[in-house]
Design a protein that fits this description.
24 helices; single chain; 6% strand; alpha/beta; 5-stranded mixed beta sheet; two-stranded antiparallel sheet
Length: 520
């Protein structure tokens, strides 16, 4: 039996395969700043302090996101004793990182199940449902969201579940999962499933939605939403008052949308190249699909409208990040799935994609060479070569499915190799064995906070170190070492940090100078 047939034999097989697929690249790979370590540090501080209501990062209250994703992390951190592993500095199997990524991995696996279920609810076809999951696997967003310490995969799962259960008119479960989405990322967790259901009623059922909303069953189910989601928000308001309202609801939601906050300002067309990139595996077939789509079918109208409104909503938003629109690709995958088996792979398409992928592999290799990441070059070239040869084998469905597996496999190997160049775990191990202070100079690697369990500050002025007594460590970019020429320092190691050459140095004051200071 072929792997693709085995995977879709039943839902258990699909879930297990999804779990294994998303686990690739999740072990041992250090947390990627700036966002991953923020969630890790906050969850660990909850365990350390016993305060499970208020997230803290770097010794400051963090109002950026609601509480549920932190609680998910706490559950797995306790299950795998992550706080103990970090304190002891022993983690040869990479359990620390895997435990932190498990909420996203599990959310990704359940998203595969609910993508299948939603597709089946709409089209009553197991073949289309299986194809929908293949599309979901293949969209580039889910190569990293399912393996990242981000709340976005949990949000997508709960939004998808809520949409599915609203369509099935199981309002109690729908409002429960909407409440969970609201606790993961705030108001967007209500807006998305709510508007999706209205679209379904307008386009498919030809109803306004008012009648459904005011049914006794739905009104009673709203109590589930209130009971689950409201208490935490009320408690935070009780603790911090208007400060919490201003920071969370106004700044991180309204002002980030309208432009009052300048965190990730990007132009209206920002998502156009991102959509094109995310559909990379589908490039040879998008034109063919666009010709086949039957827009007279109300369900296709629903799927396309779902994709477009999410895309438009976040395009209007002043602040943008690529993964904000990831949820839009669930309906797009279901739309593509209907036509996947009818697509043809021609020799011209195969040659063009083969050339494009080899060119990408060459460009990546040149970049790695310039960054002195020599160890990664053979893996990259071999992985690209394996992927590109698939263009000449099988039908589009098999090509897309097996490309997804190959890229996931070689991406995991590459990330493991990258660890040899990264500074986080090296600094973590060094700081375990001494009490010397650690400073960051004109660089901010938040992962050091998560691993070392220290609150750190990025120092911008080299004069800060002039009167510091005793020995201490400084982590900085290699180009800034000239600021410390007048100091007696030892280079502990060089590293690569987000494309920048960095160094950890140790500054030791002369013994007589230290004694003089102590006597004084």
């Amino acid at each position: 039996m072929r792997l693709i047939d085995l995977v879709f034999k039943n839902k258990l097989n699909l879930f297990v395969f999804s779990l294994l697929l998303f686990s690739l690249g999740s072990f041992y790979v250090s947390f990627f700043p700036p966002d991953e370590p923020k969630y890790v540090d906050a969850a660990l501080r909850m365990i350390e302090s016993g305060n499970y209501l208020v997230p803290f990062f770097n010794c400051h209250v963090r109002f950026d996101k609601p509480i549920l994703f932190y609680w998910e992390l706490v559950v797995f951190f306790k299950l795998f004793s992550v706080d103990s592993l970090i304190r002891n500095g022993t983690d040869p199997l990479g359990i620390i990182e895997y435990a932190a990524r498990l909420p996203s991995i599990l959310s990704g696996a359940f998203t595969a199940i609910y993508t299948y279920k939603l597709s089946y609810a709409l089209f009553k076809s197991e073949k289309i449902s299986a194809n929908s999951v293949i599309a979901y696997f293949s969209f580039l967003f889910f190569f990293y969201l399912t393996r990242a310490v981000y709340p976005d995969m949990s949000l997508i799962l709960f939004e998808l579940m809520a949409t599915y259960y609203f369509i099935k008119e199981k309002y109690c479960i729908a409002w429960l999962t909407t409440a969970l989405a609201f606790l993961v990322k705030g108001p967007i967790g209500i807006i998305t499933p709510g508007f999706n259901y209205l679209l379904y009623l307008w386009i498919v059922k030809k109803e306004t939605g008012l009648k459904k909303f005011f049914t006794r069953k739905n009104i009673l189910s709203l109590a589930t939403f209130a009971i689950v989601s409201v208490p935490w928000y009320l408690e935070l308001y009780h603790l911090y008052g208007i400060k919490f309202i201003n920071k969370f609801f106004l700044y991180h939601n309204i002002e980030r949308f309208t432009g009052g906050a300048h965190q990730h300002p990007n132009p209206f067309y920002y998502y156009v190249p991102i959509v094109i990139a995310v559909l990379f595996f589908w490039w040879p077939y998008v034109k063919d699909i666009s010709k086949k789509v039957d827009l007279k079918d109300s369900k296709n109208k629903l799927l396309l409208s779902w994709f477009m409104w999410v895309l438009l909503f976040f395009s209007i938003s002043y602040n943008k990040l690529p993964h904000y629109i990831a949820f839009a690709f669930i309906p797009l995958g279901i739309l593509f799935a209907q036509y996947l088996d009818s697509l043809k792979n021609t020799k011209i398409k195969s040659v063009i994609m083969f050339a494009i992928e080899l060119a990408i592999g060459f460009a990546i290799s040149v970049y790695l060479f310039k960054e002195r990441l020599y160890l990664l070059i053979p893996t990259t070239l071999f992985g690209i070569a394996c992927m590109s040869t698939l263009n000449f084998t099988g039908n589009p469905k098999n090509i897309i499915f097996y490309k997804t597996i190959i890229v996931s496999l070689f991406l995991s190997i590459t990330l493991m190799q990258l660890e040899a160049y990264r500074p986080e775990k090296k600094i973590w191990k060094i700081m375990l064995n001494n009490s010397y202070p650690l400073y960051e100079f004109r660089i901010n690697n938040q992962s050091l906070i998560a691993y070392t369990r220290r609150c750190l500050k990025d120092i911008g002025n080299a004069g800060f170190f002039k009167n510091k007594k005793g020995s201490f460590y400084i982590y900085t970019k290699r180009e800034y070492l000239n600021y410390f020429k007048s100091y007696k320092y030892k280079i502990v190691f060089f590293a690569t940090d987000r494309g920048k050459q960095t160094a950890l140095i140790k500054i030791e004051r002369p013994k007589q100078e230290v004694l003089k200071c102590e006597m004084y």
